[in-house]
Amino acid sequence: MKCIDYTAEGYWDSMLNASLCKFFILSALTDGPAYGYEIIKRVDKITESFCIPTEGTIYPVLREFLDCGCATCSQEIINGRTRKVYKLTTKGLDAYQAGVDVWKRGVNCVKKVITREE
């Protein structure tokens, strides 16, 4: 069994990114309907390049959102190309707000822990 290097920032970056990815995708879709690459760019921008989801990450998440009723998908022609455009439903907006509420509490706890160490 491989030993995880808990001293590596890369480990902690990947753990944080994995747990926040769905939340960031929901956040990107609160700005309006978008196709996959556009969602990736929005997440990159709103996180200042901290999280840049790959196609291998974003499409399974979008499929989950579709399956649970948090998003809808339609096909549209954009710049001459047919694209799947994703849009949050009311349930998706509620999911985003629930995430905001939980992450606010979580961030406050993290702040307390890391400032305690300074």
Textual characterization of the structure:
The protein is α+β, with helices and mostly antiparallel strands. The chain has one domain (10-116): Orthogonal Bundle (Arc Repressor Mutant, subunit A). A three-stranded antiparallel β-sheet has the order 1-3-2. Helices cover 61% and strands 15% of the residues. Strand 2 (71-78) and strand 3 (81-88) form a beta hairpin. Helix 1 (9-29) packs across helix 2.
Compute the number of structural domains: 1
CATH topology descriptor = Arc Repressor Mutant, subunit A
Tell me the name of the CATH homologous superfamily.
Answer: Winged helix-like DNA-binding domain superfamily/Winged helix DNA-binding domain
Cross-sheet strand order for the largest sheet: 1-3-2
Please give a handful of descriptors for the protein shown:
single chain, 118 residues, alpha+beta, Arc Repressor Mutant, subunit A, three-stranded antiparallel β-sheet, 4 helices, globular
What is the secondary structure topology, with strand pairs?
Layout: H1 9-29, E1 34-35, H2 36-46, H3 55-67, E2 71-78, E3 81-88, H4 90-116
Antiparallel strand pairs: 1-3, 2-3
Helix pairs in contact: 1-2
How is this structure best summarized?
This protein has 118 residues and is α+β, with helices and mostly antiparallel strands.
